[in-house]
What does this fold into?
Amino acid sequence: MNRRRKIYEGKAKDLYEGPEPGTLVQYFKDDATAGDGAKHEILDGKGVLNNRISEFVFTKLNMLGIPTHFIRRINMREQLIKEVEIVPLEVVVRNVAAGSLVKRLGLEAGTQLPRSIIEFYYKDDALHDPMVSEEHITAFGWATPPELDDIMSLAVRVNDFLTGLFMGVGIQLVDFKIEVGRLYEGDTMRIVLADEISPDSCRLWDIKTRNKLDKDRFRQDLGGVVEAYREVAQRLGILVENDNALTTGPRLVQ
It folds into this structure.
């Protein structure tokens, strides 16, 4: 990666200039952070798992006609993506009460919500990504009303797909966070899914045991973070057991 110019350095991913105009290379790191970076560790193998899980999900979404920035996986840690103008919002879709929603509304963790809820957060680490309303978004020009309609429609479609995908492998999709961007193609612009979808950005619970298979294991010092991510990859069929699984562990499907 040193031969390419770094465009952006994030907590868990870096972006480099791509091989062709309008493309970028997204590099998945092993860094795990929480509390706006206050808590930080290197978890060997996390970036590889997130890359493969996100590739799997984005490929499925592309096949369904849901617009994304994903083009293809380059190697175990890198993806080729379309360059987009990121909308400065985190879009959170909630199906079950957990995390900040529990604290804000006094709900019991694990409560099934009456319907899926979409929330917006302004992307600013210094402000700790404050929750904002549709009025804030349109008033400050972060997105136009038509763009906001597209974002919400995209979030609903992704939620429908992910809920079924994970339910099929015994996992409950509690909530997830997505980011979106503006993709410019000639004279046209459309809103597309960007960033990643992985256990870093989703809350995933085992349906039977409610065992957490996501980043909350890191946030809450539960341990076994990489093992949980590996479990998600195995259930999705991204990992297979090889003949020497007891000594070498699962093998990534190429």
